[in-house]
Amino acid sequence: MEQILNLRGVSIFQRENLILSEVNLTINKGDFVYLIGKTGSGKSSFMKTLYGDLPLTNGEGSIVDFNLKTLKEKEIPFLRRKLGIVFQDFQLLQDRTVADNLLFVLKATGWKDKEKMQAKIDEVLDKVDMKTKNFKFPYQLSGGEQQRIAIARALLNDPELILADEPTGNLDPQTSIEVMQVLQEINKNGRTILMATHDYALLLKYPSKTLKCDEGKVFEVVQKNA
């Protein structure tokens, strides 16, 4: 199995505060993994460490072939290109259309060829069923549609791992299921996904490997078959 993420004896700090300790885990290519835990249990700090927002000082960690321990500031943009990051609050640019939001990311990550950029935008919007909305502005879309665009944006650079931080956190139950179906479909096509969530209904509906943050630890939860 190809390892996408491997952490050994990792401690995660937010400034001086120890948030999580003795984290050992492996995520393999093609996995769909949930990260659950109460607010304040360390899910966000854990995610931030994975995409280079918080430094890894204790333990050993590798993610999509980057060593988190020796990660340099200038390598962070390259790490993030191999990761697709989806946030709870979408983080779309409100003053430009859907297509221009995606174009902005492509230009920022070094794409030059106009035709290739257009083809890529069409391809990712197609994957999330939003091709007909490319001329709209984010405020003209529902929350679920905005999250689909955010997922499309995360797919632009063919990431090896998608980190979704509470992607359904601001959505109603029906819309959450629709967004979840999009993520499931992407996972079926071979993408690895780590999704932080507190929506237990989704875990029951779409059971998968589950990690839990609790009392400063991260451990795998064995789901009982109902």
UniProtKB/TrEMBL annotation:
Pfam families: ABC_tran
GO MF assignments: ATP binding; ATP hydrolysis activity; transmembrane transporter activity
SUPFAM superfamilies referenced in this protein's UniProt entry, alphabetically: P-loop containing nucleoside triphosphate hydrolases (SSF52540)
Keywords: ATP-binding, Cell cycle, Cell division, Nucleotide-binding
Entry-linked InterPro entries: AAA+_ATPase, ABC_transporter-like_ATP-bd, ABC_transporter-like_CS, ABC_transpr_LolD-like, P-loop_NTPase
Occurrences of domain ABC transporter (ranges): 5-226
Protein name as it appears in the record: Cell division ATP-binding protein FtsE
